[in-house]
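--- STAGE predict ---
source: upstream dedup step, 1 unique chain passed
mode: sequence only
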Amino acid sequence: MAVPKRKHSNSRTGTRRAHDALKPKNLTICAKCSTTIPTHVVCPTCGFYMGRVVSAPKTEIIAE
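--- STAGE serialize ---
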């Protein structure tokens, strides 16, 4: 198994890890009900996506 000959410096390690930080989720406002939702996701409260109703809202209870 290969073993490094010398220790990497702290600067080199930090440079490699510069892109490992977590980024916050990109949130948008629903055009129909004004709730904040992630981008490219159907709104869970009203079922609205890309200018039309795609699915039934999850808050409705259908009684039979």
